[in-house]
Amino acid sequence: MVVPLFGLFGYKYNPIRIVSKSPGPFAVLICSFLYLVWYLPTANVRYELKSAWSDAPRRLIVFGDSWSDNANYPIDLPPKKLLPTKDEAQGPVWTEWLCSAIKCNHHDNFARSLPAAPTTDLRGAVVNSAVLNRTLPAGHGEVTMLSDLKTQVSQWLRFERKQYTSSRMREKEKRGTIFTVWFSLWDIWYYSQLDSDDAANAVRESIETLFEQLAVIADHWPMDTKIILPEAMDPTFLPAWSMQRTGPAGSDHSAEDQRNAIQLVKQWNIALDERASRWDQGQIYIYNTNDWMLDQVREAQLVVGNMMDHNGLGHSGSPWDSVHSACAGSGTRGKNRTPGNGKSGSDPFRCSNPDKYLFWDEMHLGPEAHKMIGQGIAADIAESHGDSWFAHEQPEGSKDADSSAADRKEPPVS
User: Fold this and answer.
1) Tens digits of per-residue pLDDT, 348-366?
2) Of 113, 216, 236, 414, which shows the fewest CB atoms inside 10 Å?
C-alpha cells in the first residue's frame, strides 16, 4: 500500500478528522485550533504543539556518515585518531534537531565521521566498504575504512541485546522508534572518480546493500519498522568540489568527475525511490534533499539578480550570506572572520555568522541547514502521519499486514 504524498514543512495541509459525539465541543476545538494556527504562524511552533498532544515515548536510531554523526556513541567508541572534533559553532546535526522536534527520549547514534584533519589513508563512511575497497587503484597501500552500514547495523544489534537485558527500553518506546539512514556523501564523492560504468555498478551495489541492511533491521525489530531515508545530495555544490576537483588546484579540469557525480546522484535517487516503493517490511519516508539544496542555491542567485521564479523563489530573500564558500576550514580567511578554537580544521579562523552560511566547512552543511532539514522532516511527519509514527498501540496494518509505504517528500519553496 502506498501512502499518498504530502507537502513538506506545512506548505500543504490536509484536514484533520476528529470524531466527536457532541457538536458543541467539536466546534470549540476547531475554533481553538484555527486560532492557534493564526496566532502561532511558524511551522516550528505548530508541529511542536501537535507533537505535545501525544505523550508516547520516542526514540531515534541513527545510521550514516558525518552528516548524521553527533559524536556520541552508545557502543564501540572509535579509536582516538578517528574521533571527530567539532567546533561548538557548528551546532547540532539534523538528527538532533529531528529528535528535539519529535521530543524523543533517546538518540542512539551509530553514524561515523572522519576526524577534522584526516590523513590520506582514511576513507569516509560509505554503504559498503567492500565495494569501495574494490574501486581503489592497485598499489594504494593500506586504507582505513570507517564503519559502513553493515558494521553500524551490527553494532546496533549488539547494543539492542544490552538494552533488552538492562530493560532500559519500554514497550511503548519501541513502538515510537524511528530509524534514520543517510549515506551517499562519500559514496558519490569516491565513485565519481571512476569511469562511468564502474561508478554506476558501485552505486547499484550500494543501493542493494542498503536495502539488504534495512531488511536486517526490520527482521530484528519487533514492531512496525519506520525508516527515514534522505536522498543523495549533489556533491558538486560543496565548496570542496571546486577546491579539490574543478578549481585551479583541482584534479578535474575537464569536469568529467562533475558530470559523473551529477549522473550518479540521479541514479542513486531513482533507485532509492524505486526500491522503497517495493519494500514491504515497514514504512519508509524519503526526503528530497537534493531539490532542497537546489532551491537554496537557486534562491540565493535569484536574490542577487533581483529576480523571482514562478514558484516564488527569490521573493522573500535568501537566508544565506553565502551558498558557495564555507564558514570554516582551509581557505576561508576573509572579511567577517573571527578566530576559532582550532578544532574545525587546519584554518584557525571561521566566519562570525555561521548560521548565514549554507556550508560549515568544505564538506559539511552549516548549522542552519541542519536545523532546516531536521525540523522540516519532523514537521512533515507530524502533518502527513500525525501520531501514527509515535503511537502507543501497534498501528493497524503493521508488519503482519500489507503496510508498505514509500513517501517521497518534495521540499517547499523557501
Assistant:
1) 578 999 999 999 999 999 9
2) 216
